[in-house]
Write a structure and sequence with these properties.
The protein is an all-alpha fold. The chain has four helices and no strands. Helices cover 47% and strands 0% of the residues. It holds the Pfam family Phage_integrase. One of its GO terms (biological process) is DNA recombination.
Length: 96
C-alpha cells in the first residue's frame, strides 16, 4: 500500500479536510463511543508529543513533528514528562 497523501487524515482523493470538517468528524466519533469528557482533538496531539518525550525522542524532532517554530512551545507540551532531577540526598532504611 503506497502513500497517497501527505496528510494524516486525507480525503478519499488524497486532499486535506477543512478544520471544521475534522472537528465535526471528531465530535461524531466521540458521540458514537459515548465519550462525555471534554477531550478535544488537539489533546491527542499533545499526548503524542508527551509519549515521544517519554520514549526519549529528541526534543527538536518532536518540535519538527508538531511544526512549532519555537522550542518553547514544544516545551509546554512535554514539560510534565521530563521531571527535574532532585539533588537532595536521601537514604532509605531498606537499602544498605
Amino acid at each position: 500500500m503506497g502513500l497517497i497523501s501527505q496528510f494524516v487524515f486525507p480525503t478519499q482523493k488524497g486532499g486535506a479536510y477543512t478544520r471544521s470538517c475534522l472537528g465535526s468528524m471528531w465530535d461524531r466519533a466521540k458521540e458514537r463511543i459515548g465519550m462525555k469528557d471534554d477531550v478535544v482533538f488537539r489533546d491527542i496531539r499533545a499526548l503524542a508529543a508527551r509519549d515521544a518525550a517519554r520514549r526519549g525522542e529528541n526534543r527538536s524532532d518532536i518540535q519538527k513533528r508538531l511544526v512549532h517554530t519555537s522550542g518553547k512551545t514544544t516545551d509546554i507540551y512535554i514539560k510534565e514528562v521530563i521531571a527535574d532531577v532532585s539533588e537532595i540526598p536521601m537514604s532509605l532504611p531498606w537499602i544498605k
